[in-house]
Amino acid sequence: MKAKKIVALVAAAAMVLSMAACGSADSSSSDAKDGSAAAETTKSSDSDTLVMATNATFPPYEYVDGEDYKGIDIEIAQAIADAMGKKLEVDDIDFDSIIPAITTGKADMSLAGMTVTDERKQNVDFSDTYATGVQVIIVPEDSDITGPDDLADKMIGVQQGTTGHIYCSDTPENGGFGEDHVTAYPNGASAIQALQTGKVDAVVIDNEPAKAFVAENPGLKILDTEYVTEDYAIAVKKGNTELLDQINETLAKLKADGTLQSIIDKYIKAE
Questions:
Q1: pTM assigned to the model
Q2: How many whole angstroms separate alpha carbon 83 and alpha carbon 33?
């Protein structure tokens, strides 16, 4: 669930651009799992609470398991809250509502498989990188689409507000396919459902959630095509250097003692 770019491996390396884009989940809480009112009730000024905005439809980075939030981002956020001596509160909202929640102070930080981009840097500050992602294309097993070049005259499904949405809908001159060839959905699962019902010809999404979606939905496959690697980082309100420094300090410790890698390995198995 996480500004992400796809690179088309064709003659002149023409770029196909794509999508943006969990500790103990039991100890985190949320006002609303559907995201309809979560941002409205957040009180990020509470000194004992650290509010994390996310879109929990992006396994293995964040997802809902029964009554709990789980995933890589949830565990990293919990570790940050623990280091700060605060309670973690998870606000599950629409992906394209996350940055507004940060900029208005309704959330303290965001972990959502979010790629660092120049456009996003204009609105929020980013932490050091904590993970990397790769963009892929999902198609039906009998599809005639074999790579990014074949998407030029197809309908592409993406998650609204992600970089997949931003870049795939850009003009062909800028490496995209044009708005007329892109349909944005509230989350990755909705895009996959549209693919299964023939409303779109392909879905552009990050590799790890793509693997989860394909595993859960027989008849789909991920194209074996190389793409650029992108950086995931934590977003905070511009100018909030105190929180950003605390986050980066915690990330450095998690990297140094192997905790960060163990969290990632717990959810992403080596192939």
A1: 0.71
A2: 25
Which one-letter DSSP state was computed for residue 268? S
Q: Is the pLDDT reported for residue 45 higher than 60?
A: no
Start-end of H helices in 37-162: 38-41, 72-84, 98-103, 118-121
CA angle 250, 255, 258 (to 5 degrees): 120
pLDDT band per the 50, 70, 90 thresholds, residue 269: confident
DSSP alpha helices (H): ranges in the chain?
A: 38-41, 72-84, 98-103, 118-121, 163-168, 188-196, 207-216, 241-256, 259-267
β-pair partners for 50: 88
The token duo for 54 is 């996310």
Q: How far apart are CA 192 and CA 65, in angstroms?
A: 19
Angle at which helices 207-216 and 188-196 pack, to 10 degrees?
A: 50
Q: What angle do CA 109, 70, 82 make, to 5 degrees?
A: 50
Per-residue tokens: 80? 């940050």
End-to-end CA distance of the chain: 21
At 157-207, the pLDDT tens digits run 998 887 778 778 888 888 889 999 999 999 999 999 999 999 999 999 888
